Amino acid sequence: MKQNLTCINCPSGCQLTVTLDDDRNIVSIEGNQCKLGETYARAEITNPTRTVTTTVRLLNAAIAQLPVKTSKPIPKDKIMECMRALKPVEISAPVTVGDVIVPHICGTDADIVATRSLQKITS
Amino acid sequence: MVYDVAIIGGGVIGSSIARELSRLKLHIVLLEKEPDVANGTSKANSGIVHGGHDCAPGTVKARFNVPGNAMFDTLSRELDFPFKRNGAWVIVSSETDIPRLEKLMEQGIANGMTGLSILNQDEIRRREPSIHRAAVAALDVPSSGIVCPYEMTIAYAENAAENGVEIRLNFKADTIAKRDGIFHIEGPAGSVDARILINAAGLYADTVNNMVSSEPFVITPKRGEYFLLDKTEGSLVSRTLFQLPDESGKGVLVTPTVDGNLLLGPNSRVTGDKEQTSTTREGLREVAEKALLNVEHVAMNKVITSFSGLRASTQTDDFIIGPSPDVENLINVAGIASPGLSSAPAIAVYVRDLVKTMTHAEENAAFQPVRSTFARFRHMTVEERRNAIAKNPDYGVIVCRCEQVTKAEVLAALRGPLHVHDVDAVKRRTRAGMGRCQGGFCMMRLPEIIAEELHIPLTGVTKSGEGTNLLMNQNKQNL
Amino acid sequence: MQQVDLVIIGGGPAGLAAAVAAHEAGIRDIMILEREAVPGGILNQCIHNGFGLHSFHEELTGPEYAQRYIDQVQALQIPIHLGTMVLDITAGKEITAVNKSGVLQLQAKAVILAMGCRERPRGALNIPGFRPVGVYTAGTAQKYVNLNGFMPGKEVVILGSGDIGLIMARRMTLEGAKVRAVVELMPYSTGLKRNIVQCLDDYGIPLLLSHTVTEIRGKKRLEGVTISQVDDKRNPIPGTEETIPCDTLLLSVGLLPENELSKAAGVELSPVTGGAVVNESLETSVEGVFACGNVLHVHDLVDYVSEEAALAGRNAAEYILHGHANGEGIPVCTQGGVRYTVPFSVDPHKITDAATLRFRVDAVYRERYISVYLDGERVLHRKKRILTPGEMEEVKIKKDLFDTHPGVGTITVAIEEG
Questions:
Q1: Which residues of C are less than 8 Å from B438 in CB distance?
Q2: Where are the domains of chain B?
């Protein structure tokens, strides 16, 4: 079977066609103009991952939302599960860049970490 | 309780009548269906205070336009709204049309105007370098002016409120019945009883009249579309430029606005629907084309917004002003299309005199004609700014960068006598959001300030009343 | 009037980097004037990652990138006046600003303009229809979602497939909205391929190229938009209309450098970039007034902004310390699809190592060369597989090339086929 992908490494955006056998092993990769395309296709087919960036509710700070990210990319199919898991989360300032907000999100080895430092304010 | 007078409609007509009536000792209520005054035609027009040459002598329009125009200097000072007598020209591009200019001039003189003259090509080119090269002559109307129509309406309404008129916003009159000499007005917001009913209901004045009168009339909405251009274009012309009027109206004009923008429009198209305040591709194209009859060039890449307004036009093409022929104590002030804004001050005085005769009411000795609105940062000198900030640090917090509007002004707008709550009401009172970025900078700050002031969550802030909440839900709520 | 050596207008990535560089070059009397309550500029609302690949060899989020510079500015104890809005600058470098404490009037020796840019609003597009609630520029929606934590709506259509539109397509989806389509006027997207994949493809959001919004429906609350296909002149094709029901329309239709203050100072602006015309030192037509970042020309990579701002900072410092060295700028011309270059002129005497010229092309070009000519002689010829309007390019002309080519009258940057 065949799967189509767009390579993201450069503005060429080569349209890649990956042929897979019945066991989902990669048989061939076509359409790339350079080696980066091949590397990308392999990764995307076998284990597509994404870094997720979002915000969570923040209390006692100058702003109401704390920007956060996954400390490393997580499987693409866990993105929305990750978002749902963050729905009830609420953090109180002070918070520092890198603070772990939620460890091992959705059973992955990625943590949700803060990407902004904010002091506690009283009012 | 039974009010002495109920006014239906909070546009410039209803609001000016309310203010004039508050000179009398009467219990007056103004009923406005929208969340703010000036939410209908009064906010979507050219803002021109016409000279009066365009009205056929003997019409009701002719009766009120010229005296109304003359009242603007005093009124704008008393009520603290911006007005400028910048003058207007009616221009023609063919020598054969000059007799039509002369006819307009005669008409103006018959209506009581002074100062009219006809200028030749050299003069008009010299005085307005951007004028269309084909323009050969112009009727000079020095009494013509420009005003901010909603600031004028708000000023009238606030002065009326300060002088004891009860203003009920969000009050839609669904049914009106007359029983035992009392008008009984009912709607979702409640009911009001009044001895005298003044119908200033704009596009719906026919609906109001026809609920109680057997002499119905019809209001036909005629839409006019506009372009508003950046203040960088505001000095393209100093006067308001018109073509000769035709059956559909005064035509597409090019004018500076009193706030320094450039305005193009309106066209004129009948719409079937009294809610059709949308712009159209064809209408905007028509306005852009016809504007170029007045000037050589317009920088259309400097358009910051476009909008449309609906004229309340009648079958006779004239105002319907006066006591109803068959319903006692009903006064109609209807069909106030152009030159309605210009005529409003004179119409209001006429209605006041009528009501005074009807009621024999005494003068209200406590009437305060002067209304002061909050100080505008953008008009202040450096010294005045220093003093304002020292007294109120919120004058040092700029909320709208394009129009230089401060937090102090936003709060003052919310704390005014009409008790408005929404973003558009604040916008009309302060100009926040009306600049070239059209809310890009202020549209987070403004709702935050409103939410804090009214002690409501950010999701409770509306653009213009119920059903127009800016923000629908919290993040992740729908996951 | 308070005397200040260097006033920097804007505490975003450009202003912060310029301040650090000026300090490193020996200036101590610096004031950064920032209108928001916090420094960091637009990066504070850019919570996605992809920043800093060139500068830090890491993929940082916007706030993390900003923090790197905020930390440096704070460590150097360079004062930032927050909540301070500059109202006016004169050609004599007198600055008037306002904040809660009052009115500041400053006389600067040098000024760096780093005010960034604003979004093109709906009004500038003349989309017919009503003016209901629910129509926002993408950046305003980004603020609501990322700073306030509230969503403008549930059913979204986005007009414009530049990176901001694409990022917001993903952002809205992640927070629970349904993005029905991204509508793009041009036959291509100016966004990064990475964003097309990770913001649209990942979520099954359709990208409608060569389409535009022709009507906004719904009087009080947005109810839907009518979209039409457009022809090669970008005019709507009658008969191709379709209505997409939605309660939110986000506009990502262009960024405009915010040069109102620059105009007040008499700075000459380029009609192509919307930003100041500057020389190799990033100095504007007004002596001692420099410009950098999005106010100079709209950037894609914040890394380039930081580099550009550092150059402005160093040169402002040089100007304060040693005044103006008179020199002749060689004008830079463009050819073959190069829309503009920044800087617009180069004085070789002011170059220490190389002159960096940044530019954008006006269309998509494949298998071309970027060429630089000094008068008639080609001195640079670099193959590029692809050039797009959405990706700013740069060329560096080494100083020794100028040394070996004295008396050059024109520098030309061109796109060539061979």
A1: 121-123
A2: 1-84+145-219+314-373, 88-142+221-311, 377-460
